[in-house]
Amino acid sequence: MVEIRLHNSKTRKKDPFTPIDPDNVRMYVCGPTVYDRAHLGNARPVVVFDVLFRLLRHGHVYGADHVTYVRNFTDVDDKINARARQMQEDGDTRDLNTIIRALTDETIGWYHADMDALGALRPTHEPRATEFIPQMVKMIEGLVDSGHAYAAEGHVLFDVRAYPDYGRLSGRSLDDMIAGARVEVAPYKRDPMDFVLWKPSADDEPGWPSPWGKGRPGWHIECSAMSHELLGDHFDIHGGGIDLAFPHHENEVAQSCCAHPEAGFANVWLHNEMVQVDGKKMSKSLGNFFTVKDLLDQGWPGEVIRFVMLSTHYRKPMDWTEEKAREARETLDWWATTFSTDPEVLAAARLGEGAEFRIDAEVVAALSDDLNTSRALTRLKKLGRFLDNSSEFLNLEATQQFSHRLDFILSVEALGIPLISLSTRKRRQGLSLAKAETMMNAERMKALSDRDFSRLDQLKISLGEMGVEVRMSKDGVELIPGPDFDPAKLDAPK
């Protein structure tokens, strides 16, 4: 079995991953608060943990039937209430709770559509917080009974001083947190860092009955209750963006470990770094704030967005630039037209149940080394060039070419990039420049061997008429599109 090593935020080092139960590897990732479109920062953890999900599900790791992945929807939150009230002010005549349900339903639909476009698999479970209110109330009651939480003025708060390990995950002391934190100052708090487990709701706001009156849960208790219900009190991996490490994940650890002191909550904590745009923090005030839908509407396919994200290791800031997006599209176009295989061709090969094409060992090794997707992509680029040259210049047997092609496709799709659908789209657009360049290089090699350049000269003239400049040197052929070049007109010269 492949050994996976992951950088654990709890230990601050890269450790071998050993699941609690290899027959049921369990992972929880914090999902979105559903009141608006998902932006690039929301999308990055989806892509990162989708790769980990795929790796864990791989047949030579634990297998698809032995991995449980939970990613929640926060559908009760003050931001949702505020957006619904704004909709009322803008003329929506429905009551607040009806607006909230419609808003969260619509936003979840948007989220699914956007993440599907990025090639992300749906998790095993996608719980909505509002579906687990009784479990949250029960957990809060237990924390009050054990002395780790207290009720005050309709609120219930977690007593951070009652948990000596508070701050260990984020590496901060409690006094340092108080000195540098922006915390709600309220007279009913025993300590400024105490956080809300339950809060009262106004008459028109979402609310549920509880021992402390009608109210709603605080944000942090939601994830603790949902993960416990679906994964148990001790599971393998908890993930999310680095911005959640404190206070959200720190608070999850505190309340979960106090609620279930005999368990360890999550063994491994993974945090992805933030997203930048052109080297700057993404911000609406800077005009560089993009939702996934914005980029899709601008013509960047989901595969390109995913490729750009995977080009940077998840623990480093990811910088979105149009230059990176163009480079990603060129690489994907080349792969799709050069290596992909139609579903009809795959079916014609009559691959039986026992037929397997291996995923490149170096790609698996890169992903197993703390999800080093950038190294995996570098390997695929190198492998792609080698296989392309092999199929053109070494004249491999057709079956061997087919096997290599499938190996390459599976290696790429291990990262969630669907080359088959890409190639179908590319064929509708005509032959790509990358494919034409590959063909011209093959013709050049043949001409040098046969000492007959007539066919090469004809192709050069044909390409020139299409608006493509052909440059030849001792290193090979390079095709340069001119200002009048139209990719749709670039068909394979006969």
Automatic annotation (TrEMBL):
Binding residues annotated for ATP, in chain numbering: 284
Keywords attached to this entry: Aminoacyl-tRNA synthetase, ATP-binding, Cytoplasm, Ligase, Metal-binding, Nucleotide-binding, Protein biosynthesis, Zinc
Source organism superkingdom: Bacteria
Locus of motif 'HIGH' region: 32-42
Cofactor: Zn(2+)
Listed Pfam families: tRNA-synt_1e (PF01406)
CDD domains, alphabetized: CysRS_core
Gene Ontology cellular-component annotations: cytosol
Coiled coil: none
Motif residue range(s): 'KMSKS' region: 281-285
Cofactor note: Binds 1 zinc ion per subunit.
GO molecular function per UniProt: ATP binding; cysteine-tRNA ligase activity; zinc ion binding
Similarity comment: Belongs to the class-I aminoacyl-tRNA synthetase family.
Subunit (UniProt): Monomer.
Protein name: Cysteine--tRNA ligase
Native source organism of the sequence: Roseicitreum antarcticum
Annotated gene: cysS
